[in-house]
């Protein structure tokens, strides 16, 4: 079997796996990991637990490399019949990425990325983040014994995520700017100071995230018609699409889903680009949304996301903050599943598409719910309010209840 390589998406220049490079040194475009489709069946891999590393043969890490892992992946795929009815489609599943060790899908990427960093001999890792990437990287860096630097947009990171980065011992630096500015800074710093960069521009990290597609096939027993994904920096939708394609290339599946990319209306440059048929992304300079995880105006992975949507004959849309918040609450109250606002965008997008006739009412959709409810407790209090306080006596409490 040939070794995995990196290939430029635009000029096809190739790099071997030991080179530390994030974008093409020739033309500046994004890089992609290319693997030879492995000869392995689902059944053979099913001897291992349902986790990211079940799919070893698809992961571009040499067999003898020590893996840095927190047993990530293997998240629940919930069938949600009440939610499907609410959204106006036949069948809806939630792939609950909040169940990962640090509470978001980022862990799938970080097990790969930090394993890679360690195997390359890096001593320090870094990222810019709207929160979850930093929470995840700081945990995996701790496990690997690496120094971790995270650069955050000041005042715009949910409290749960910040708490994680701080407790796992990362050096946390807040910049008075937005995520896009923080990412520019960390990209400059990592090249200059030899710190391994673990934002989703790093193609190795995305290799871990593609396992979500593998798990969906395993759990559902087939390829769903559509997969809805919230888009921020646009790495996840492209990673998931790559996963579905690789399963097909390896002969494990024989069809592909349509990818549905959903952005928050105040941070929707990719949706605008596709809607207006622009050839380049027009960044949003001051992105705003309650879904701070996807508050990104200049997503670096936009070419990969646009490919995923176009190649899969997929769809795209933006949802308002009101739609996001309402959907977050409905998912929690109807199905008992707690997700953070960005995660609710995928389900909100499905409901919107069904209501305007852009999605077949007969569709079967998997919505990727990317992060846990507890990530952003302040948002919850701001929409649900504080609990009612009463004196500590039976009468006062029973007056608050309705008889059954
Ligand atoms: N949902 C959540 C909960 C996220 O944290 C993110 C990204 C996304 C969706 C979007 O994924 O960037 O691959 O399109 N969060 C990043 C971070 C940017 O820094 O934590 P994407």
**Mean of all residue-level pLDDT scores:** 97
Q: How many β-strand stretches?
A: 13
Strand content: 15-25%
- CATH architecture title of the domain at 77-103 and 205-383: 3-Layer(aba) Sandwich
CATH class of the domain at 77-103 and 205-383: Alpha Beta
Helix content: 25-40%
Structure commentary:
By secondary structure, the protein is of the alpha/beta class. Among the domains are: 36 residues; 206 residues, 3-Layer(aba) Sandwich (Rossmann fold). Helix content is 38%, strand content 15%. The chain has a 6-stranded mixed sheet, with helices on both faces. Strands 8-7-6-9 form a 4-stranded parallel sheet, sandwiched between helices. A 3-stranded antiparallel sheet has the order 2-1-3. Helix 3 crosses helix 7 and helix 9 packs across helix 11. The longest helix is centred in the middle third of the chain and has 15 residues. The chain binds ligand F0G. The site of ligand F0G has 21 residues, from helix 4, helix 9 and helix 13.
Helices and strands in order, then pairings?
Blueprint: E1 5-8, E2 14-16, E3 31-34, H1 42-45, E4 77-79, H2 81-87, E5 91-96, H3 106-119, E6 124-128, H4 132-144, E7 147-153, H5 159-167, E8 171-175, H6 179-193, E9 196-197, H7 203-209, H8 211-220, E10 226-230, H9 235-249, E11 258-264, H10 269-275, H11 302-311, E12 315-319, H12 321-335, H13 341-355, E13 364-369, H14 377-384, H15 394-399
Parallel strand pairs: 5-13, 6-7, 6-9, 7-8, 10-11, 10-13, 11-12
Antiparallel strand pairs: 1-2, 1-3, 4-5
Helix pairs in contact: 3-4, 3-7, 4-5, 7-9, 8-9, 9-11, 12-13
Residues 104, 129-133, 200, 230-236, 293-294, 340, 342-343, 370-371 line the site of ligand F0G.
């Amino acid at each position: 079997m040939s070794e995995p390589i990196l290939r430029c998406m635009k000029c096809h220049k190739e790099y071997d796996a030991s080179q530390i490079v994030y974008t093409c040194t020739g033309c500046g475009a994004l890089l992609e990991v290319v693997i030879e489709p492995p000869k392995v069946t689902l059944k053979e891999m099913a001897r291992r637990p349902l986790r990211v590393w079940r799919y070893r043969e698809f992961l571009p890490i040499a067999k003898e490399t020590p893996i840095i892992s927190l047993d990530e992946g293997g998240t629940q795929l919930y069938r949600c019949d009440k939610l499907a009815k609410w959204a106006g489609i036949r069948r809806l599943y939630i792939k609950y990425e909040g169940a990962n060790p640090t509470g978001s899908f980022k862990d799938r990427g970080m097990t790969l990325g930090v394993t890679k960093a360690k195997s390359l001999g890096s001593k320090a890792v870094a990222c810019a983040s709207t929160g979850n990437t930093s929470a995840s990287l700081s945990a995996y860096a701790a496990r690997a014994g690496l120094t971790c630097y995270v650069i955050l947009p000041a005042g715009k990171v949910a409290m749960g995520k910040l708490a994680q980065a701080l407790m796992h011992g990362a050096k946390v630096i807040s910049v008075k700017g937005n995520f896009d500015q923080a990412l520019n800074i960390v990209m400059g710093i990592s090249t200059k100071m030899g710190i391994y960069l673990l934002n989703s521009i790093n193609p190795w990290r995305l290799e871990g995230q593609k396992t979500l597609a593998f798990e969906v096939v395993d759990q559902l027993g087939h390829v769903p018609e559509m997969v809805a994904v919230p888009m921020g920096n646009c790495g996840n939708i492209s990673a998931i699409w790559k996963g579905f394609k690789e399963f097909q290339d390896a002969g494990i599946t024989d069809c592909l889903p349509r990818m549905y990319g959903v952005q928050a209306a105040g941070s929707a440059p990719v949706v605008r680009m596709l809607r207006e048929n622009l050839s380049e992304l027009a960044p949003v300079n001051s992105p705003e949304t309650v879904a701070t995880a996807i508050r990104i105006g200049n997503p670096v992975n936009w070419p990969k996301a646009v490919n995923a949507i176009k190649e899969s004959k997929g769809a795209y849309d933006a949802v308002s903050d009101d739609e996001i918040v309402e959907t977050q609450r409905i998912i929690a109250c109807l199905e008992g599943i707690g997700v953070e606002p960005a995660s609710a965008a995928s389900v909100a997008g499905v409901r919107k598409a069904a209501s305007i006739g852009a999605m077949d009412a007969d569709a079967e959709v998997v919505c990727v719910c990317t992060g846990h409810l507890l990530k952003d407790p302040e948002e919850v209090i701001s929409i649900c309010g504080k609990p009612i306080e009463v004196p500590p006596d039976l009468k006062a409490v029973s007056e608050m209840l309705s008889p059954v």
